[in-house]
Amino acid sequence: MRIGVITYPGTLDDRDAERAIRLAGGTPVPLWHADDDLKKVDAVVLPGGFSYGDYLRCGAIAAKAPATKEVIKKAQQGLPVLGICNGFQVLVESHLLPGGLIRNEHQHFICRDQKLKVENNQTAWTNLFEKDEEITIPLKNGEGGYIATQDTLKMLEEENRVVFRYLEINPNGSMNDIAGLTNERGNVVGLMPHPEHAVEPGFGPDTPVATRSGIDGLKFFQSALKALVNS
Amino acid sequence: MPKIIVEIMPKQDLLDPQGKAVANALTRMGNKDISGVRIGKRIELHFDREVTDKDLEDAKKQAKEFLSNDVIEDVVAVTVEN
Q: pLDDT by residue (tens digit) across A81-138?
């Protein structure tokens, strides 16, 4: 299974995403923002970073890139797409997911191991989690405050489209403690925290078992591979 | 130079952390009567010729769809300076 990872000018975590896909058992395929050829990949990851220097608004210019335009088209046909951090911002700017992301309420960049609850395990990227499973993966952002209108929030809650919710602490002022969302079909998932940084023992968050042993992020990528095999 | 000026502000009911930080600094500097600050954007679109009605129409569309995000911002003015 081939999973594409788009690199925009200013992307930082494309290599980590590629490594996570490899560790999960997939084949990572590097994709370039200016190229509208998605190389027939089976899924796409929009990685974290600061695409186009966060100019205009985070993700706004990346949302208009040739590669993103193809992703939008294919996502509407069911292609699994995961947007991580800046990738989540690209997804909301592309209108594949509703709402917006603004500067953290406390105005500081934040970097911490973040506990989350997986509330929806029916998506292409979460099907290997238990419902309401608690996981810990790194979070690092300056503009991660999720906002939406009351009508949108109500719709997201009623349709079970909040995939991840922050536990114990709301790190950025996100409404309803929302950390991640999915679209109606469940193939597009976006979240602020970084699953690709918790995929290999020795390099992940600390757990009660051992220092840096957390690999809760691996299941995101394994879930996508499972979803692709079953489709 | 002929130009179209697009002015964008964060929505009224949203926290504007940048404005808040500047308001705090102004208060510290002794500006006791300033009760709040909000910071928006001014975007200039330059032309090498006169701006037409069609240009303005296109700019209004871009202002709404690309230059601003209507979830978090309002376009408060799109004006021509020929």
A: 999 999 999 999 999 999 999 989 888 899 999 999 999 999 999 999 999 999 999 9
Residue of A nearest to B40 (CA): A56
pLDDT tens, residue by residue, A45-88: 999 999 999 999 999 999 999 999 999 999 999 999 999 999 99
* All domains in chain A, ordered by first residue: 2-230 (3.40.50.880)
Instruction: Tell whether B21 is within 8 A of chain A (Cβ).
Output: yes
CA of A227 vs chain B CAs: smallest distance (Å): 32
- Name all domains of chain B by residue range, CATH numbers in brackets: 3-81 (3.30.1280.10)
Q: What is the ipTM of this complex?
A: 0.86
Please say if A58 is a catalytic residue: no
Q: What sections of chain A are H helices per DSSP?
A: 14-24, 66-75, 86-93, 150-158, 218-230
Closest partner CB to B66 (pick from A64, A92, A102): A64
* Helix ranges restricted to H, chain B: 17-28, 53-62
Residue A75 tokens, joined: 């996502």
Tokens of B67: 């230059």
- Residue B65 C-alpha, separation from nearest chain A C-alpha, in angstroms: 10
Active-site residue, A133 included:
no
